[in-house]
Amino acid sequence: MRAQFVLSEIGVGLRRNLTMTFAVVVSVALSLALFGGSLLMSDQVSTMKGYWYDKVNVSIFLCNKSDAESDPNCAKGAVTSEQKKQIETDLGKMAVVDNVTHESSDEAYKHYKEQFGDSPLAASLTPDQMQESFRVKLTDPEKYQVIATAFDGRDGVQSVQDQKGILDNLFGLLNGMNWAARAVMAMMLVVALMLIVNTVRVSAFSRRRETGIMRLVGASGFYIQAPFIMEAAVAGLIGGGVACAFLVIARYFIIDHGLALSEKLNLINFIGWDAVLTKLPLILATSLLMPALAAFFALRKYLKV
């Protein structure tokens, strides 16, 4: 009987404050969707770091004839076979080096044509204009400076480039976007909590006569508070369900289908469905507990039971 009464009061409360309940559902859904999105963004950045940092190379570009005429680093002329052999020998002696791959100018030209064959510039290039290079795989990508110090400025070396620096800029941008999403999420959570508190108070005020009678006949504080707390919890849970649906739909249409980024951006290792599904219980639990706790503390002061 008590359970039936509580459930009936929940339905009455939700219908009486339909507009505010809808606002609570929308604000909770948006804030928790951003919350889940920020968690998934963190997972995506971590996945990309693990994937790309493992493939990071340090490139030692060697001087060619055209560099000797235009680049101050190659003022002593194009790299000689003795210089190339010495560079390769020195690289082999370094503990931070995992392996070394030599790319000739012909191979560099071939790779350039494969990647940028449609570019107008590709038609004007010749193999002798492409730079030879050593692609160095490090045991630790953080040890780039060791290679740069040893070879930057050496005769026959045009430049030493670290691919990790390019990736750091990308990941810095992604992390900045993630923190921006978290800031918006925090503001939306505050808005959601304020709406929940106001909705509960309006609901309690509209039923002050019933609660007063219940207090007079000796009803417990929890028994009086339960319908209001559960109203907030139900509204929050609906919002959490909407947020979960949004994340699942977004993952499906953005990565797998629709935009199909997983097919168009083969170089990016996207997070899988397991990462999404493991976040859904957390979002649902938050959507249930957050409104319930907000309603509980608001009612303690308002009803004074």
TrEMBL record:
Localization in the cell: Cell membrane
Predominant cellular place of this UniProt entry's protein: membrane
Record domain ABC3 transporter permease C-terminal: where: 184-301
Keywords: Cell cycle, Cell division, Cell membrane, Membrane, Transmembrane, Transmembrane helix
Residue stretches spanning the membrane: 21-41, 179-200, 221-254, 280-299
Membrane topology qualifier: Multi-pass membrane protein
Domain FtsX extracellular residues, every copy: 56-160
UniProt key word Membrane: yes
A Pfam short name: FtsX
Function recorded in the entry: Part of the ABC transporter FtsEX involved in cellular division.
Subunit comment: Forms a membrane-associated complex with FtsE.
Family: Belongs to the ABC-4 integral membrane protein family. FtsX subfamily.
Protein name (Swiss-Prot/TrEMBL): Cell division protein FtsX
